[in-house]
Amino acid sequence: MQVIEKRAFNLLQHLLNDRNFSVSKAMDLLGCSKRQIEYDVSKINELLKENEIERIRLSRGRFLINKDTIDKVTRLNLPHQKFIVNGENKVWMICIQIFCTREPLGLNHFITKLQSSKNTVLGDLKKIAKIGSQYKVELKYSRKLGYYFEGEPIKIRSLVLLSIINLKDNFLCRELISLAVSDNSYEAVFEETKDKVESLIKEFNLPIMKEYLILVIYFISLMPYHGQSISYVSPMIHEPMWNHLPLYAAVTAFYESLSFHLSKEEIDYLFVLLLSMSLGDNMYFQLYRLEMCQGLINRFEVITGTVVQKKAGISENMLMHLRLAYFRLKYGIPVVNPALMQVKKEYGEVFDICRLVLEPFGDYLDCLIPDDEIAYIALHFMTVMDLPDQDKIRKRAIIVCQNGLASSVMMKNQLIKIFPEINVVTTCNAEEFKGIPLETYDMVFSTTEGIDVPEEKYLFVSSPILTVEEKFIISEAVYSSVFGIRSEANVTVPSILEIVEKYAMIHDQKGLSSDLKNLLQKKYKKESNREGGLPVIKDLLTKETIQFASHVNNWEEAIWLGARPLLENGSITKDYINAMIDNVRGFGPYIVICPYVAIPHAQNQSGVNKLGMSFLKLEEEVCVLDNPQKPVKVFITIAAIDNYTHLRALAQLSNILTNEETRKQFVACNSVEDVIKVLDIDEE
């Protein structure tokens, strides 16, 4: 088989992993010119021709590669010596090797197996030790045992699952895992596991996404090779009620049908894996129902001082996610949210607030909620924050996304910000799209090509998370074709580089590309009042709005006293104070969001004139609604004028309240200076 150069091979990896991979993105990630990309494509096509596979074509800055080509290349049995394991893949492969080995593995083994230098392997082992510590797993070494993991078996499995998660999106995942296992029988074991798992899923009609299903298959296929411990999984995982469930009986039968022997504890673990990945109406999810989701929404409203519209819809979507999160968190099953960094960057305030919103969920499970899970919940709330006035929207769009809820929600939020004239009426997958009536939409945004859209409708293909440049490109396309608005020039980074290359020698392609991208980014910066101009908490809590009192007669008096600075500076009217008190009487002591801290609020229509926030500290606690379980010493009154202007200040407050140390300092403040000092901690 023909060998292609490393850069071309990396390009091929990207193309097989992302069918929406553009020429501009390739130039940026690989640090090369358009001509070099074209050269690499020609070399890749020579490899495809040798194997009688349809070639890859270039058209209008995009790679055209059909599904048949992807399937055939994925099935190519590329000899291991023909490709180089690079980047983070080495780290995850080493984790799997250590988990699966029955022989001592030393440094020289990894150097030879991964074709890496001594320093590189040592660096990878340090990364593994750091990652393992997050799961309370130690990477140890002895002459007799070589490198091995020490910790609770279920924690070690979490680390292995994380390794598979990080490898599974690579089109060479199967080859990489096979290389890590280093056993000629692995291919047969994988095929047997795949066939029987798929039969189990089909028999019980479990709605499991393909990306989750392959994770289960890969994990089970590793079990015959794990020789590190006799007790595979702690028996404490088992719950007696499982013995009476049909699915549990099926999983037991599944294990008994395999050609390799596994312990009873592994049956429990697979059962939990399936429960943590099934998207359907999970009959085993007994402890948390719709009421709990509504409670989280109410808590979000209290903390943000806003009103969430269409609560029923978001409750149902959130319930589906929390079913999965419940089992992941309870049994240490890792999750990697591909949108995490984007959520933190674009919606950092909502993310920080959701950390505080989810505290009761974490308290029940006796664990900290990981950032990846928080980001998923933040995505749910972002769908109801800051939406444009639907009555003013003229065009209707549908998002077709195969990558799950997180990707579709992220894509929807980005498109709404780019195109306020467009109403995204629904999101769906390719199969669901076939049943949507033509008269209900004008255009389709899809993350994959091949969607059958009628000629009279518009189709736009893009990544679920748009880069600055992709936002520019799709903006040009939509405004030009749908609205008939054309800019004077379609200015993109690749188009500029192409012109520069004609007249000058580019010495730093990557640096020039980065600077040009930053220049174009100005077009897509958020409105100043939603980024740099949002008030911070120290803008709102000042010496004029911070108060202290020894005691009050009742909780109503506390709300009145706490709101007085806002009444005096004209931020609110008396009607707003009465509305806050009426809300507590009507809905209960929901304003107490953590020990000794309450955030009273009401709808802004009840008497808010301008944005405001005040702080009241009582020396003697007061019980809201005379409930002894709801004592409060600090009242933070919020007057919000909309759904977003106060979010940055609230995100800072959330950070203070989710940290136990700063929360105690906040409640213990006895002077304006003390309060300002705690606020300064969050800014550090």
3D structure, described in words:
- By secondary structure, the protein is α/β, with parallel strands linked by helices.
- It folds into five domains: 6-73, Arc Repressor Mutant, subunit A (Orthogonal Bundle), CATH 1.10.10; 85-182, Orthogonal Bundle (Arc Repressor Mutant, subunit A); 290-382, Orthogonal Bundle (PTS-regulatory domain, PRD); 390-487, Rossmann fold, CATH 3.40.50.2300; 537-683, Mannitol-specific EII, Chain A.
- Helix content is 52%, strand content 10%.
- Strand 10 (592-594) and strand 11 (596-598) form a beta hairpin.
- Helix 5 (89-100) packs across helix 9 (173-181).
- The radius of gyration is 28 Å and the shape is globular.
- The protein starts with 5 loop residues before the first helix and ends with a helix.
Characteristic terms for this protein:
30 helices; Arc Repressor Mutant, subunit A; 684 residues; PTS-regulatory domain, PRD; 4-stranded parallel beta sheet; globular
Please sum up the structure shown.
By secondary structure, the protein is of the alpha/beta class.
Secondary structure elements and pairings:
Elements: H1 6-17, H2 23-30, H3 34-50, E1 57-59, E2 62-64, H4 67-75, H5 89-100, H6 107-113, H7 118-134, E3 138-142, E4 146-150, H8 153-167, H9 173-181, H10 186-203, H11 210-222, H12 246-257, H13 264-275, H14 290-304, H15 311-330, H16 340-346, H17 348-357, H18 359-365, H19 371-382, E5 395-400, H20 405-418, E6 422-428, H21 430-433, E7 443-446, E8 458-461, H22 468-481, H23 493-503, H24 509-521, H25 537-540, E9 546-549, H26 555-568, H27 574-587, E10 592-594, E11 596-598, E12 612-623, E13 631-639, H28 647-658, H29 660-668, H30 672-683
Parallel strand pairs: 5-6, 5-7, 7-8, 9-12, 11-13
Antiparallel strand pairs: 1-2, 3-4, 10-11, 12-13
Helix pairs in contact: 1-3, 5-7, 5-8, 5-9, 10-11, 12-13, 14-15, 14-17, 15-19, 16-17, 17-19, 17-28, 19-20, 23-24, 26-27, 28-30
